[in-house]
Amino acid sequence: MFYMAQVKVFHDKNGNTLVVWFGNPEDKYEVEETENEVLLMKDKDGKVIGFEKLNFISAASETVRVAFETFAI
Questions:
Q1: pTM
Q2: How many CB atoms lie within 10 A of CB 24?
Q3: What pLDDT, in 10s, does the model give residues 2-23?
Q4: How open is the CA angle 43-17-31, to the nearest 5 degrees?
Q5: Taking the chain, what is the end-to-end CA distance rounded to the nearest angstrom?
Q6: How many Cα atoms occupy the beta-carbon half-sphere of 8 within 13 Å?
Q7: Which of 21, 41, 55, 67 has the most CB atoms around it within 10 Å of its CB?
Q8: What distances in angstroms separate CA 48 from CA 36, 41, 61, one per listed residue?
Q9: Which has the closest alpha carbon to 49: 61, 37, 39, 40?
Q10: Each residue of 31-62: pLDDT tens digit?
Q11: Are 60 and 52 in contact (CB under 8 A)?
């Protein structure tokens, strides 16, 4: 069985953040901050549904590229 996942990526050049959602943003229940300026957004069950990278700076002309690797469970 295959599942189609939707990933949402937001790059805020003014705020220097990169936000990636691979779950429903409306399900966000808590946020955990890591040591590397990354915020993990979690649902009620503690499952990570997205993350935000703080102080994410890229060149103004640079395209932000995102690659994903998937695996079957």
A1: 0.77
A2: 12
A3: 555 688 889 888 899 999 998 8
A4: 25
A5: 11
A6: 10
A7: 41
A8: 16, 6, 31
A9: 40
A10: 999 989 999 999 999 999 999 999 988 766 56
A11: no
